[in-house]
Amino acid sequence: MLPFARVSIIGMGLIGSSLGRAIRLHMPTVRITGTDADAGVRERVRELGLVDDVADTPGAAVVDADLVVLAVPLGAFAAVGAEIAADLSAGAVVSDVGSAKQIVLDSLAPLMPADVHLIPAHPVAGTERSGPDAGFPTLFEGRWCIITPPPGADEAAVARLSEFW
């Protein structure tokens, strides 16, 4: 059984588009919804068929997702968190791909509903290229993913995220 059935990716640049491609390759039954702040990027994601659904807003993208991955700049976390908080499903895992972890907790923890699991992560992968066309499904293969559960994190949710990566 797969750790997640519905994944939402917010931010469809190199990391987000690579994640969408990797899910398609390794977990083809997982339903993927993506979004990006840039309408042109959203259109390109549609053209490339990187996800099953492209949402116009982060809030719409997270409806019914059991994993939400923020692939946006660290400085956008608070604004995105505020946009998605009311639309998150009970039991959902919210994670990220950012390189710093304290800002994730500082920006998102106060906004998350009590029944949502915030688990910061950082897949140590990337290239010098950016945008949805730069992504590729093997970007994360043979790479580390640092998962940094906050104190008191739900062990089952952490295990599911670890299995996903």
Which tags fit this structure?
single chain; 165 residues; alpha/beta; 6-stranded parallel sheet; 6 helices; globular
Give an account of the 3D structure.
With 165 residues, the protein is α/β, with parallel strands linked by helices. Helices cover 32% and strands 17% of the residues. The protein is built from 6 helices and 8 strands, in the order βαβαβαβαβαβββα. The strands form 2 sheets. It has a 6-stranded parallel beta sheet. α4 links the parallel β4 and β5 (93-96). α4 (77-84) crosses α5. The chain is globular, with a radius of gyration of 14 Å.
- Proportion in helices: 25-40%
Mean pLDDT: 95
> Strand count, sense and closure of the main sheet?
6 strands, parallel
- With strands numbered from the N-terminus, the spatial order across the biggest sheet is 3-2-1-4-5-6
Percentage of β-strand residues: 15-25%
User: By helix and strand content, what is the structural category?
Assistant: alpha/beta
Question: What is the gist of this entry?
Answer:
With 165 residues, this protein is of the alpha/beta class.
